[in-house]
Amino acid sequence: MILVIGGTGTTGRAVLHTLHGRGLPTRALVRAASDLPPSVEQVIGDAADPGALRAVLTGVSGVFLAMGNGPRQEEVELGVVAETARARVEHLVKLSAPGPADSPVAIARLHHRVEDAVRATGIAHTFLRPYAFFQNLLFHAGRIRATGSFPATTGDTPLNMVDARDVAEVAVAALIDNPGGTHLLTGPEAISYPDIAARLTAAGRPTRCVTVSPEQLRADLRGAPNWLIDHVLEIQRLATTHPEHPNDTVARLLGHPPRLLDDFLREHAPAFGIPNRTSESG
Fold first, then answer.
1. pLDDT value for 202
2. Mean pLDDT over residues 72-97, rounded?
């Protein structure tokens, strides 16, 4: 039995769908009943509750941990690590973050502290460190559809982006084969936000990326939690000071290349306002 904690998030949900496709016994700890694959055993509970964790870990051999970012993330993840070790789970796969232990990105430092806690337990583990997800672009989709523009502070800086479904496939491969290790995950190319705008334009939705200052972006994000605004600004600042380069890790681990951004944009064409181009006949 494999337990997924964080199964309603972008990567966790993709992991559940991948496990479902493999026909593997799967359990998900969720706060409320969710629209998950029918084969998934949903257990209602809170990952912050040690009692709920102990109950849901019964009979579990592998755990995928992908808590959403937030003020209590470190506290909750450390609790999951402790209960996973107590339950003598064979393998823990954790969604983590790239960057050094002294990263200027607060959430990256948090992930490193949780990684250290996992190592201290002696439990077999795999750490997955993706950069930005293709799926994050959907955050801008409504604005792009309505106005044809979106803001960023990174200018022409190339960014590593990867499809969350590729990360999920790597996670499931780790849960099945228990190889362990720490993996920096990227897509097949590093691409700037202006380049993404150009690809949307070429696909039929004229789009431009507006380069703004960190102060302007903070004002644009007003209304979001302060920790989230800080996180967005930190990761965009880091990208401009520490160049990001694609690697072959996904292809090496899965035996096939990672998904392409162009395919992702076509897949989500209606969300971005890309017109449906059908071949003319007659």
1. 95
2. 96
Rounded to whole angstroms, how far apart are CA atoms 108 and 197? 28
Cα separation, 199 vs 124, whole angstroms = 42
DSSP assignments along 141-153, one per residue:
HHHHHHHSEEEES
Answer positive or negative: Cα dihedral of 18, 30, 94, 112.
Answer: positive
- What percent of the chain lies above the pLDDT cut of 90? 82
Contact between 65 and 94 under an 8 Å Cβ cutoff? The reply is yes
Question: Using CA atoms, how far apart are residues 73 and 276, in angstroms rounded to an integer?
Answer: 41
Q: Helix (H, G, I), strand (E, B), or coil: what is residue 122?
A: coil
CB atoms within 10 A of CB 237: 15
Q: Based on the number of CB atoms within 10 Å of its own CB, is 256 exposed (0-12), middle (13-18) or buried (19 or more)?
A: exposed
171: burial class by Cβ within 10 Å (0-12, 13-18, 19+)? buried
- Would strands 149-152 and 41-44 be described as parallel, antiparallel, or unpaired? unpaired
φ/ψ of 205, rounded to 5, equals: -115, 95
pLDDT digits (tens, 9 = 90+) for 197-242: 999 999 999 999 999 999 999 999 998 899 999 999 998 998 988 8
Measured distance CA(24)–CA(26) in Å, rounded: 6
CA distance 212 to 151: 6
Tens digit of each residue's pLDDT (9 = 90 or more) over 176-207: 987 789 999 999 999 999 999 999 999 999 99
Packing angle between helix 106-121 and helix 73-86, nearest 10 degrees? 10
pLDDT-derived band at 278 (thresholds 50, 70, 90) equals low
Sorted by where each starts, the structural domains of the chain and their CATH numbers stand as 2-272 (3.40.50.720)
